[in-house]
Every structure is written in C-alpha cells, then in structure tokens.
Amino acid sequence: MRTRQETEGIPRFADGETAGAHTADPMSDDPTQMFAPPINRAMKVLDRSFFQKTVNTSAARIFSPKDISRVRTDLDRSRDTLRTRLDGVRPDTDAARAAKGGKCLILKPEVVHNDRTTWSPTLQQLEQAGTVGVIPYELKLDYDYFTYSEVTSAIIPPPEKKNDDEIPTGFTLAGHVAHLNLRERYLPYKSLIATVLADKNPNVTTVINKLDNVGTENAYRTFQYEVLHGEDDLNVEVHEQGCKFNFDFAKVYWNTRLHTEHERLCGLFKEGEAICDVMAGVGPFAVPAGKKKCFVWANDLNPDSYRYLAENVKTNKVDAYVRAFNTDGTAFIRSSAAALLEDDRSVPIFPKVKFSRSAPKPTERPKPLRTLVQPRIFSHYVMNLPASAITFLPAFIGLYSNVPGMPSSKIRKLLSPHTDVKLPMIHVHCFSTKSKDDVAETKSICEEISRQLEFEVTPDTPELEVFHVRDVAPKKTMFCASFRLPEEVAFREV
Prior knowledge:
This protein is an alpha/beta fold.
C-alpha cells in the first residue's frame, strides 16, 4: 500500500481558451504558465485529448551520444536545463540523428536559441567547442504530463472568494480505495474529480465520497458513501508498521492519516508490557504491539471490527500475545483490569532455527531462551475514540477498589513502592479547537479530564502530555492526552 495521502498544492491559473491544442509563448512574463494545462471550465465529461499543448522552447543538440552524460551534468550545474517533471533528455528533432541515438537536452525558457545573450558561459563554451548546437524545440505535453491538481484546477471554477473552499486535493487512501470528503460546491464535479484522481493514482481502482459525519451518525464510526469511480468493492488490504490488515472499509473505521499516531504510541510500548486497547478497531495499535511481544487485550464494540481484529491477529501471527474482545468500552476497562490480576499467561521465546533441505529437521523442539510472563497491571490504556473517549474516563474511578476476591491492600503491594510497577498511563484521544500554540486547548482538555475523573489534572501535572495529533478541520484539532492514572482515582472507594 502506498502511504501517499496528499497531492501537491494547487497552482492558480487564469481562465484561458477552452478548445484545441495550445502553443505557449516562451517569452511570456510568467514562464511557469508555459507548462500550465489548457483550461476548460465548461467540461462536464473528462476529455483527456483536450490536454494537449505545444511549448516552444530551446534545446541543446548533443552531436555525439558519448557526450550526453557530460553535457547534462555541465548544463545542470550551470542551471541552463529545464527543471520540470519531464526527463530533459529528448530524442533529436532530426529523424536521421534520432535513429542513430541522437539526443537533445531541453533548456529553460529563458534560453532563446537565436539570442546568445541568453546563454550561460557554460552553454556558449559547449557550443563553441562543437559539442552542442542550440536549436528551437517544440515540446509536446499531454494529459499524462499534468498532475491531478493541475487538471482539476483547469476544469473546475476556482473559489469566488478568498475564504471559500479550495479545490479538493486531499484524500484518504485505504488499499485500492480513495476516500473523498467533498464540500457541497464541488458535488457537481464529483465524477470529474474521481476520474482524474484514479487516472493519476494507478493503484486506486475505487473512489468514494462520504455522505455523513463519522462519529455522529453512527456509533461504530462508519459512514454512508457513494461510489464515484470503479466498483463498489471496499474489501481492502493495508500495510502499516510491518503488519497486514484486511477489512471491509464500509463496515469498520480506518484512517490512514493516523499512521504516524499509531507508530508514535506503539513506540512507547516495551516488550513484555500489558496493553489495554479499549477502542481497538481492526488493530492498528494492537497488532503492531503484539509484534513487539506486548500482551494486548484489544476490544471493540463493533462486531465487524472485532471480527477483522481477530482475523488480523491470526494473519500477523500475534495470537500468542493479542486477545480480541467485543464489548462496551466502559465495562471492558473495569473487567479487563480485574481479569488481568488473575490471568496466568506466559509465552516461551524460542531461538530462531534455520532449516535447509540438506539438513534434517530436529526431532526435539529447542529449549526456550526465556519466557515472557504477562504482568498483573496494564502499563498503558489506549482510548482512540476522539469524539467521545474522554467520557469513558469515569470507568477508572475505583478501578482497583472493589475487585472481586482481591482486596485493594493486596493490589497495592503489586505496585510502587513495593515493586517497580506503576499505575498505567492513560492515552485518551479527543477533539478540541485549533490555535498556534495549543495552550488554551491543553488547559481545556485538562479541565475536562479533571471533571470526568473528579480529580484535578493540570498542564503542570507530572507525566502529563497533550500531544497535537493532526488538524482535522480549519477550526478542529485531534489531540492525545497522556497521563498517569492517579492513585487516588484508582483506589477510590465507590
């Protein structure tokens, strides 16, 4: 899977002609316009043949094929060459020369073939030495040359006002599915946008558009969608952190833009720790943590997420470490903490043995190098449900005060200062407003955590971090608040 999620920025083009091939003027006041696509704001169905353009420029004709590499190096250094996505080395315009391997090197627009004052000293020296000749060159551009952003900007009217929605360039990718979230003013152009997007991203075969808001219309964070291009096939395969995930994108929540957050949190987990993933989805935290030999209790309320989570655990061969559950998050926080206290689980670590066809397989299994024993206390809780995860925090109140069959005094002896074990870190995702320094947001998030736990947590609380995950919308940001579960909260009598 490609991890490329965003296309490049949108160049701004003035309205121009709307029919036929275009020839650019090399002496234009704005040379970049030479390589802008022709514009047709009236296009309703994509016409790829419309995007043909001839750019009149200059080229260095290289007389001997053996000089191609040297000439290119020299003219690159002197900044005489054309710097675009195109390969600047082109076939000679003379058919006989081209047949013998003759090449031309496209020069930048400022170089004019019949005006030596526009040539650099390097180009003049190469010409005087008989190594190159400077000739006019007609550079042919077509639909394949132009990017998604350039094509869509050429066929979709730009915003009327500065603050209006810009032409959509970003999309979320899940396997072969590109997921758009088009604003209302672009809906009339949705088929055009989807077709160009698929053309410019060869691995994309299905393009969909979201029709509602994730996390509000559906508790499982799924959404209604329409297919804009390709087949209605949302069974995808995604690769992340060395793991393979299979799922139906229509039935579960997945956001590839969170891959860095998945990696960040998993980077905090250490081998042998116990991790509780309360809203696990299909396993983007749980499965990589299992790869690190962490004992993971992973839960999701969505039955489809649970099913794919269990399948991904097996596919990635981490079932010795990761257990899947399908229950309510609040109940899971309390029940898993109690169950872990009594759960005897260990995993032997065997040496890696290489087999060959010539050497017989050993009849006896080697002795384990060591054995990982599952801890009694979770080291981390992951709560990746930003729309509402923070409201699950009251489940931690009295987490260890009323455990059936185990008095709190006995649980306390499992923790510091009696051992090296600390109460767990809580990582709760949430949404807030957007600002330059996140100071107000950090304070607001701490106040909400305090309200939910009935215990004061401030920006100065030791081990607290409010991490800026990503901007979701112009005025909306996703954060991850991490803090150590306070002892007063965990052992409060309720």
